[in-house]
């Protein structure tokens, strides 16, 4: 849900159609709310080792290894203390970080389609 004009919760299409005008909030700070799906949300933060991709000409193998490592950590997080609703990772867990050139960055970057 997004906040639309007048401080009311709006659906994604309604928010996308928003003209980009200012968002107003009631003077008392209140806004329309919807109940949560459940009262408690279990969240785990993972700060794992960062393995930078070294072979920028063929990064898939190293990125797959990093993804496999993340999946293992997600399994561990769900096994320790019960099932988690949200598992959060540090930045760049799949590609790591290196002082790459622009061309190298473009080869290891993950493109997420969308508008």
What is the element layout, followed by pairings?
Layout: E1 2-3, E2 9-10, H1 12-16, E3 43-46, H2 60-79, E4 86-89, H3 102-108
Parallel strand pairs: 3-4
Antiparallel strand pairs: 1-2
- Encode the helix/strand succession as letters: EEHEHEH
Give a short account of the largest sheet.
2 strands, antiparallel
Estimate nothing, just give the exact number of structural domains.
2
Structural class: alpha+beta
Unreliable runs: 1-10
In percent, how helical is the residue content? 25-40%
What's the alpha carbon Rg, rounded to whole Å?
Answer: 20 Å
* Straight-line N-to-C gap: 18 Å
Instruction: Give the strand content.
Output: 5-15%
Number of strands: 4
Query: What's the helix count?
Result: 3
List keywords for this structure.
single chain, 115 residues, alpha+beta, 2 domains, two-stranded antiparallel ribbon, two-stranded parallel ribbon, 3 helices, 28% helix, flat, disordered N terminus
């Amino acid at each position: 849900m997004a906040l639309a004009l007048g401080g009311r919760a709006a659906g994604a299409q309604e928010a996308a159609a928003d003209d980009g005008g200012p968002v107003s909030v009631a003077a008392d700070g209140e806004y329309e709310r919807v109940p949560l799906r459940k009262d408690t949300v279990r969240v785990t933060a993972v700060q794992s080792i960062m393995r930078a991709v070294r072979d920028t000409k063929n990064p898939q193998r190293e990125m797959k290894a990093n993804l496999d490592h993340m999946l293992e950590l997600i399994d561990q997080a769900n096994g320790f203390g019960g099932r988690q609703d949200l598992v959060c990772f540090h930045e760049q867990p799949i590609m790591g970080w290196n002082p790459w050139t622009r061309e190298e960055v473009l080869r290891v970057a993950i493109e997420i389609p969308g508008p």
